[in-house]
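Shipment paperwork, digital attachment
Item: protein structure file
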Amino acid sequence: MTGETDGDEVPTAAQTLRYRDAPRRRQAIVECLQSAGYIGIDDLARRLGVSEMTVRRDARRLHREGRVVALRGALKLPTLDGGTGLPAAEYRDRAEAAQAAKMAVGRLAVADIRHGDVIAVDAGTTALEVVRALPRMFDGTVVTHSIPAIDHLLGLPSTKTIGLGGDVYRPSCAFVGSVTVETASRLRVRTFYLGAAAVDARGIYASADTERLVKQTLMSIADRVVLVIDHRKFEATAPVFLCSWGRLSMVISDRPPPPEIRAQLREQGVEVVLPPAE
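Attachment content:
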């Protein structure tokens, strides 16, 4: 029978995974998901050299243990609270702050997205509203390292989602690290919707150096970079400098920037998009 060994024949790695070491095989499934974020059952079966039935059996076990989320024909990583569908509390609190303003920014951003567009979306809570504002039948491609964004995009049947796997950074509910950067560097997008922890006359800031390299890599693969922020970021402070205003093509916000920032935007030729005056 195929896959069996007799005599002194040494089993292949695939046979070892299939017949001798189910815990190691299940760990391999989790590691594949940590790299890709979302994987089809058939793809996992090919990668591991086992049957789809074996993968499904492992998936049921991993799902019961809370290590993966089983979908129809695929697996994904659980959200950061252990699979209840809610992100980490810190992230959730940020997402709920100034939510109406963020939603307004998201709607303005989507008005600029074309049929069949290829975009990248940052891991911030304002950038998430760009994804949430996409029409259900959006037929373009979205590249993102945001776990909540990937989760939402699974419900858009016509959208191609490229999830950038890597190490989970819990404060942002996002993937970061060398795997994320390497995967992103091989891609190209028309627009990257960038989030920020704070801005001032000098430029844009991130809250942690952990996020900086991923953001800068996504900026480098984009034809244009659009900053999406709510008005609170004009008064916030953050420690990690990301880029100057001249690196941007557009700023979308719910309120006009203060005079010192507005002067920099004019000087650098950066377009500012705001909601229509009431």
